[in-house]
Amino acid sequence: MARVKLVFAMLIFGSIGLFVRNIDLSSGQIALARGVIGSLFLLLVGRITKQKLSQGAIRRNLLLLLLSGALIGFNWILLFEAYKYTTISKATLSYYFAPVFVMVLSPWILKERLEIKKILGMILALGGMFLVTGIGEGAGKADLLGIGFGLMAAMLYATVVLMNKFLKGLTGLETTLVQISAASIVLLPYILITEDLQYKQLNSIGMILLVIVGIINTGLAYLLYFSSMKDLSGQTISVFSYIDPISAILLSVVLLGEHMSAIQVIGGILILGGTFLSERKSMSPQTSRN
Question: For 82-135, what is each residue's pLDDT tens digit?
């Protein structure tokens, strides 16, 4: 049953690009709504199931939670911008470059030894990223801009992953709840300062899609993800996490008719294969996802 929950969570995470592409709002306003709706949903579920939050542990980690939560909010904005400028496939693959950034920074921040298999994995992923960009095939400016947004989102996500290594005494669900709530708190003044709110102008379909992103792609997905973790090993969770990018790519090809050249497909395989190789036997479940 735990594996089924995890598979569903990964499929839900992988489908978010399909919804975001069809919501007629800025990336910032989608991210803000996602954080508000998702955190309210998780709070409601916690109240119904009588799950108590460890207030003491949250207070002890509050500064780090707020900082990482702010990064998550801007990470969402950059990822949603990537979806708008390039295909979901390319945005997803560029975003899945985050483990490479983690590997590069870990020796300095976490004092971890950089093993040969990690170096080989990074080389494969870098080669794959070059092929996915399509630079040699005359990639357009919009594609390159979208991939750039995806890589910047990946960098922020990698930073959050590393910051989460220093959190103590919190469950994954507690961490995520506080972080996405913090993302909403930080994004609200940012959005109010930089743009006009346009939620009232959203049509009924757009509103439904926005609610789906908040409740299903955020609240329910995180709930399934963390409820499965206690019954599965970190290795199993990490391997199953590859369902997320693979399903995102397949959905974009089947439902949106997005095209990837043979070279870009090879690049995608190199990215996913390289990150898998470098993380194998050393992977652990991470507390925050896209």
Answer: 999 999 999 999 998 888 888 888 888 877 777 787 788 888 888 888 888 765
Contact yes or no for 286/161 (Cβ under 8 A): yes
Closest CA to 100 of 150, 56, 65: 150
Taking the C-alpha atoms of residue 250 and residue 15, their distance in angstroms, rounded to an integer, is 10
84 part of a folded domain? yes
Q: How far apart are CA 192 and CA 173, in angstroms?
A: 29
Nearest to 221, CA basis, from 78, 43, 38 = 38
Number of residues that make up the chain = 290
Does 285 map to a domain?
A: no
Show the tokens assigned to 267. 């690049």
- Domain assignment present for residue 286? The answer is no
Please give the Cα distance from 74 to 191 (Å, whole number): 11
Residues 6+ apart with CB under 8 A from 192: none
CB 224 within 8 A of CB 5: yes
Q: Is residue 134, in this structure, part of any structural domain at all?
A: yes
Q: Which residues contact 274 (CB under 8 A, 6 or more apart)?
A: 100, 120, 121, 122, 123, 124, 125, 126, 127, 128
Find the domain containing 25 and state its range.
2-279
Distances (CA, A) of 262 to 131, 137, 169, 218: 10, 11, 46, 33
Among 278, 250, 1, 241, which Cα is nearest to 112's? 278
Of 244, 279, 277, 274, the residue nearest 127 (C-alpha): 274
- Name the band, by pLDDT with cuts 50, 70 and 90, for residue 281: low
Overall domain count for the chain: 1
Contact 195, 28 (CB under 8 A): yes
Residue 38's Cα: distance from chain center in Å?
14
